[in-house]
Design a protein that fits this description.
Elements (H helix, E strand, L loop, with lengths): L1 H16 L6 H23 L5 H25 L4 H27 L6 H28 L2 H26 L1
Length: 170
């Protein structure tokens, strides 16, 4: 049910933004939505057992929002200094939440058996690929003096996801 609510929200936001010029605010809103998806995933990890189906739905929601971040950042072309600072700040918050969530996911590693471990690893690899694309698009649009900081934040996300992916791939 949560997945469908998230999917409906994504479709509604996409429909509302058709034809409207994209701004840095769209990227900021996308990052906020990514944080919500991570919170939903973290909620699923708190449930008893390990719900691979819920995790797969969260994976789809996360890749969709990461794709939107990539597209919106690419469409904006460049962020001004203030927007870049806010985007980096929000993404840093997202990185902290991803780190906490991947640590919780790794802690559940032993409760996942057989083919499901491979499915989780593949899902995480997919998210890593989409996160790298989103990070590259955002970093590209940052002012020169903000590029290194933005890159560090996205590397935190990629590294955290990579650790979880490796835990499930082994």
């Amino acid at each position: 049910m949560r997945f469908f609510t998230t999917l409906t929200a994504i479709i509604a936001l996409a429909t509302l933004s058709i034809g409207a010029p994209l701004t840095s605010r769209d990227v900021i809103n996308d990052i906020t939505e990514a944080r919500q998806v991570v919170a939903i995933l973290r909620g699923h990890l708190g449930d008893s057992g390990f719900n691979v189906i819920a995790l797969a739905k969260d994976n789809l929601a996360m890749t969709a929002i990461l794709d939107r971040i990539t597209k919106d950042a690419s469409d904006v072309n460049a962020f001004n200094e203030a927007d870049a600072t806010e985007i980096i700040s929000r993404t840093s918050q997202l990185a902290s939440e991803v780190e906490t969530t991947t640590a919780a996911l790794i802690a559940k590693n032993d409760s996942v058996q057989g083919i499901f471990r491979n499915a989780v690893a593949q899902g995480l690899q997919s998210i890593i690929n989409h996160a790298k694309a989103a990070g590259n698009a955002v970093v590209k649009d940052c002012p020169a003096d903000k590029k290194a900081e933005a890159n560090r934040v996205y590397l935190r996300i990629a590294n955290s996801l990579s650790q979880a992916q490796k835990a499930f791939a082994s």
